[in-house]
Amino acid sequence: MSPRLLRRLLNLWPPFLFSGIRVRALSDDWRHARVELRLTWYNRNYVRAQFGGSLFSMTDPFWMILVMQSLGPRYHVWDQAGSIHFVTPGRENVFAEFHLEQAVVDELHAVAANGEKHLRWFDVNVTTADGTLVARVRKQLYVRLKPEFRPATRPPSDPPASPEPP
């Protein structure tokens, strides 16, 4: 699937569509995404700020998608954990920018090459248009080579034979 088609589908996906979440950009090389959460009457909380669940939702799939597409089909990439730290109330539209550097992709290739699982944290800030920090979101990804691409494991060699009694 192309990044352009995925962006369009995500913008029509009910959890995003009905929360005011819009994917504004998804780069052709799968290394950048920009997401917006518009403040509307249906995603405000009791104190008229952005609902925390919507703030987390707007960031939820993007690290996994960017890493999965950048590593290629030989790897399992799953969300393992996530957390959000609310810094200031979001009382206007907010944005999240995801940038996946080539050095990180190279690191993941290297640490997963032996077939073992690797857990890595990724961070993204949610900000207003003028750069005011609203929340910090952390996602932990599980990365591992799929079984058919893992290095072959060799059974332990037989123990040395005991010397024959004289």
UniProtKB/TrEMBL annotation:
<dbReference type="InterPro" id="IPR027961">
    <property type="entry name" value="DUF4442"/>
</dbReference>
<dbReference type="Pfam" id="PF14539">
    <property type="entry name" value="DUF4442"/>
</dbReference>
<dbReference type="InterPro" id="IPR029069">
    <property type="entry name" value="HotDog_dom_sf"/>
</dbReference>
<protein>
    <submittedName>
        <fullName>DUF4442 domain-containing protein</fullName>
    </submittedName>
</protein>
